[in-house]
Specification:
By secondary structure, the chain is an alpha+beta fold. It has 3 domains: 111 residues, Acyl-CoA dehydrogenase/oxidase, N-terminal domain (Butyryl-Coa Dehydrogenase, subunit A, domain 1), CATH 1.10.540; 114 residues, Butyryl-CoA Dehydrogenase, subunit A, domain 2 (Beta Barrel); 145 residues, Butyryl-CoA Dehydrogenase, subunit A, domain 3 (Up-down Bundle). 48% of the residues lie in helices and 15% in strands. Strands 1-4-5-8 form a 4-stranded mixed beta sheet. A 4-stranded antiparallel beta sheet has the order 2-3-7-6. Helix 1 packs parallel to helix 4, helix 8 runs parallel beside helix 10 and helix 9 packs antiparallel against helix 10. The longest helix is centred in the middle third of the chain and has 37 residues. The chain is globular, with a radius of gyration of 21 Å. It binds flavin-adenine dinucleotide. Flavin-adenine dinucleotide binds next to strand 1 and helix 12.
């Protein structure tokens, strides 16, 4: 097992507890879910019951009140154990937006239920088919009508919507040509999906190259109470940006876990597989790519730890969260490719789990934000280069 250097004892303890839970969900479990494209509900329930998904919820609402560094350890360890945290990760960072910007009534209404595992907050509806990465161009409209908002439009890639009770939804409340600043006019809603599925909300699954439970969601005169609004009307974009930094850091931690899984898997195989009378790992042509991936992973890991620290200290983590996500997703993808190469033909066989993890790891240089958009952020906001769009 690839350890984490100089880890605090409380974090090491969390890591051991997550590892022990994950041992109950070996490769066969994930292979079957992958084959059936089925949601790993048992695994998500076990994580919830053990309190891991409520790590960031304050103790007063029934959670553990831990910081992002601990949440990052949880997500990393799930991946390093060969499991797939994508089934559950959104609960941590979507909840964070509710915690930061929700009213006392909203927090009391939902957070204890989420912490107790009675409610799932797994769906985050931002992406739309026509606007792509250009979130400020999204078209889903929410119009105030008495004590309600009426919502029309469509989201795409809303992952886990079929397995969630609540959805954080970003919609336009003021037309784009009527706002002073282009970042205004979008609002964030906490939608109780139990009230609206089949009653204004339609969910259609999208089959993807890996088991991700992602969907398209259609809103057709969907009525939700005005009390679903999080924070102030028109300020939703600002609220989700802060949540997105937490999301990027947690997903970066998952990528580090994936990279560790690939590196360990490749190292073990290289020691065991004998060809031409010697283990393939004796050849530097096999050793060096593994060692290079290890160094790349360790460097990215430092950035993930640094980003979590800045976040926990309350600083602006835009640059660090983006860099952590980019470097970690590149490290995990490099390790995935190396792992297939090290396994030769067996890298393609289902029973080795390498091809499944390879497909799963591919996502993270694209979502939740693609590498180009991170480079663009760094160019413009950190280096002061001219805007490209
Ligand atoms: C499996 C999966 C799960 C997802 N889950 C969710 C979810 O739960 N909720 C949610 O809201 N979204 C989700 N997403 C959406 C995800 O965040 C987007 O796919 C991602 O942000 C990229 O947006 P896009 O697909 O619209 O790509 P586009 O914006 O169409 O971009 C396509 C390509 O062009 C590049 N590009 C675009 N503009 C520029 C530019 N100006 N300069 C250089 N390059 C550019 C991009 O980097 C990208 O490589 C998910 C996506 C997938 C595939």
């Amino acid at each position: 097992m690839i350890s984490s250097p100089q880890e605090r004892e409380d974090l090491a303890e969390i890591r051991r507890a997550v590892r022990s839970l994950c041992e109950e969900y070996p490769g066969e479990y994930w292979r079957e879910k992958d084959r059936e494209r089925a949601y790993p509900g048992e695994f998500v329930d076990a994580l919830t019951k053990a309190g891991f998904l409520a790590a960031l919820i304050p103790e007063e609402f029934g959670g553990s009140g831990l910081k992002l560094d601990a949440a990052a350890v949880i997500m990393e360890e799930i991946q390093a154990a060969g499991c797939n945290g994508a089934a559950a990760h959104a609960q941590m960072y979507v909840m964070n937006t509710l915690l930061r910007y929700g009213s006392e009534e909203q927090k009391l209404a939902y957070l204890p239920g989420i912490a107790a595992g009675e409610l799932r907050l797994q769906a985050f509806g931002v992406s739309e088919p026509t606007s792509g990465t250009d979130t400020l161009s999204l078209k889903t409209r929410a119009v105030r009508d008495g004590d309600d908002y009426v919502i029309n439009g469509q989201k795409i890639w809303t992952s886990r919507a079929e397995h969630s009770d609540l959805m954080a939804l970003l919609a336009r409340t003021t037309p784009r040509d009527q706002v002073e600043k282009k970042t205004e006019g979008l609002s964030l809603f906490l939608v109780d999906m139990r009230e609206v599925v089949g009653n204004g909300m339609t969910i259609k699954p999208i089959r993807t190259m890996m088991n991700h439970s992602t969907t398209e969601v259609f809103f057709d005169d969907m009525r939700i109470p005005a009390t679903s609004l999080i924070g102030e009307e028109g300020k939703g974009f600002r609220y989700i940006l802060s949540g997105m930094n937490a999301e990027r850091i947690l997903i970066a931690a998952e990528c580090i876990g994936d990279a560790k899984w690939f590196i360990e898997k490749a190292s073990n195989y290289a020691k065991e597989r004998t060809v031409f009378g010697a283990p393939i790992g004796k050849n530097q042509g096999i050793q060096f790519p593994i060692a290079r991936c290890y160094a790349q992973m360790r460097a990215a890991e430092l950035m993930v730890h640094h980003a979590a620290k800045v976040y926990d200290q309350g600083g602006n983590t835009g640059a660090e969260a983006n860099m952590a996500k980019m470097l970690a997703s590149e490290a995990s993808w490099a390790a995935a490719d190396m792992c297939v190469q090290t396994h030769g033909g067996f890298g393609f066989a289902e029973e080795y789990d390498v091809e499944r993890k390879f497909r799963e790891a591919r996502l993270y240089t694209v979502a939740p934000i693609s590498t180009n958009l991170i480079l663009s952020y760094l160019s413009e906001h950190v280096l002061g280069l001219p805007r490209s769009y």
